[in-house]
Specification:
It is built from 9 helices and no strands. By secondary structure, it is an all-alpha fold. The radius of gyration is 18 Å and the shape is elongated.
Length: 182
Amino acid sequence: MVAREVGRLQVQAALARHLLQTGLGAISLRQLAAAARISDRMLLYYFTDKAEALSAAMAQVAAELTVQLETALPPPTLWQPRALAAAAAQLTVSAPMRPYMRLWIEVVAGAARGEVPFPQLASQIAAGFIAYVELRIDPAGLADPRATATTIVALIDGLAVIAVCADEDLVNRAAATLGDLL
């Protein structure tokens, strides 16, 4: 691997850690460079602009999230939709997942405002979540497995939003009863 590629991957990992710790709120190029412990110019050596740096960092975050999801809900087990929704709800409100879900909510908010690169990132991440769930639900007896997967993702994302807005006890109770709704 070329030295520049190695450096870029190291910077990308540092930016991903920074985003998980601090979120996206009013993040500047200078803040990103400081998080990676490099100069602004060096950051622009690795990435063409702030949008590319954020996209690369979010790709790193998505890769880390995928590892956590694969560990918690490994393939090739097929789940009944209700059971998968219940397991995903518990996972969503767990302490290790909170930084990922908080960051996801910020990406969605940025996409809603039309801020580059968030519309594209949100679309990619949402498609990934839906595909992930769709691969894990048992399609037997389902009229539209993709629509079912999308419904589960919508419920889980809604729970993540509530986790930001409500007290922990209520969120945990909601997560425990989510599977009963299906």
